[in-house]
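Technical appendix A lists one of the benchmark inputs used to test multi-chain prediction within the project. The record comprises two sequence entries:
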Amino acid sequence: MTNKSVLGLFDNADTAADATDVLLAAGCAQEDFDVLTGCPYPEGAFGEKDPKHHIYVFPLIGALMGLSVAFLLTAGTQLAWPMVTGGKPILAFPAMTIISYEGTLLGAVIFTILGIIFESRLPRARLDPYDPRITEGYIGLVVTCPEEKLNVMEQALRNGNAVDIIHEKGRTLKA
Amino acid sequence: MQERVRLTDAQINRDLLRSIFETPKWYFLLVGFLGIIVLLGFAAAGYMINRGLGVTGLNRPVFWGFFITNFVFWIGISHAGVMLSAILRLVQAEWRRPATRAAEVLTVFSLMTAMTMPLIHAGRPWRVMYWVFPYDFARGVYPNVRSALVWDPAAVFTYLTSSILFVYIALVPDIAVLRDRTTGWRHVLYSVLSLGWRGSVRQWKLQLIAGILLSAIILPIFVSVHSIVSWDFGSAMSVEGWHSTVFAPYFVIGAVHSGVSAVVTVMIILRWMFKWENYIRMEHIDALAKLLIVVATGWFFFFALEFIFGLYSLEGPEIALREMQVFQMPWKALFITFLLTSYVIPVSMWLVPKVRRNIPLMIFTTILVNIGMWIERFIIIVPGLARKQNFTFTWGGYTPSLVEITIVTATFALVTMLVLLFAKVFPLIPLGDAKEGMILHDEIKIGKVMVPAVMREE
């Protein structure tokens, strides 16, 4: 049983929000449809659940890795040429702290970016079903369901006053 | 405070992508002109590398001159960007929307430019690798991590990498808009860069988190960078005028002062060039000018502290240096110019509400600040070095050569050119942010008046 997706395009947020109720009434589960918009809307505007993610773990891991690498690098470079200057210890911790601080933050930033990309489910090879009008203010409702239920979902989107229905592979049907 | 015009998403796309899809003739003329200046700068740098540092005005005891002054200046400008963007994001200031991207982009380009300065200053740039790159090059010697000259590249590299990633991740939704409106190789390029962005609820949610999370992480980097730049001076034991313990915060707030002023200058120029009056509105310029009054006064406080600490030490050489900075030509003229241009004239003008909403006066005052702040760095660096030695016969002076002036001038052309080139490829005002601002904006009736209101999620 293969899953297929269909996109319903709505010309305003209120209609799209109402259409989500129609989809739920037609037997579509909350996690089986997604809302595509051209800008961020307030949380819950389309009745969606707060997406679960683990983004806050990424900077912590990155910071720990950055700290470790920076510490090893600074300690290693000083131990590789152990020259005593001014009777001070070989490992100069104040100086190491500065480089380690930068390393920690660099690691945190890099891992945060990786985390954002990973948790956003990017990179994504295929856009389908998608419509550029989404960036012009239209709201897209993408329903993913088994192929045999596709007609039911498409009808539900039409009943929800979609202005256009777009199937995968870019085939466009006027509603 | 609310002077916004209600615009549709299509109108916002059209307006903010104008810089990319419509290229006026003056654009090519301007970029070409700036490119010539940049090439002159490269030629001067090439000449200097070929002939040696003798073609500059640097000589014993003044070995840090225009290049290092310019390095500190551009590092300072870079601080506006992320600081402005990060703080305004964290406090969810509504007027941040048109300012963030321009500020972040200015950060990236000014940091890149700043990094070229120590390289050029080194005379033989390739040798810099030996003291910053953590590899022993078969000599058995690694960079000295105890040196401020190694902390500095580490901090600047961290800041540059973070700023580039910050700009990129915030650009992804806008690149997707460009992907949907282009064909051919540009479509392919934007498709790759947009990573397959579709604008799902999850993606937008993570974008918002990214903005706040990265802001929170980058702010400590931003503070560290100029602190470490100040330690380049503070850790030099034998130079008078470089010892104050307030150097780090003094440098950081000075950087914010010059940087925010530069952002205002850039925003005004962009508003005029691309007709973005509906996006960069007078209320934004007004708010930034108010912020500048606070920042400038904070900076002036640290400047006064640094000066008083120098005098309070009652050390003869330190007091003699201050006396030279304030009462002897040419430092006297520079000192007066610096005080007038970086604080007295601009702040007294910004206190007048009409000035804060006057475009020519705002551009005048913000450029004035940066003239003053460049001079400030110059009179911190050079006089101390000129009087570095104990004996009067080892004192020296410094006059910049044409090579140095050309290279420094070229850095200004380079940053301007890079910002213009960026505007030709990516939008300088975040589209998603502008559209979100429209959604969250409304007018509510209170009693007999309609009051503009902005909703904010907690």
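The radius of gyration of chain A is 26 Å. Residues 71 and 100 of chain A are 6 Å apart (CA to CA). Comparable benchmark entries are summarised in Table A2.
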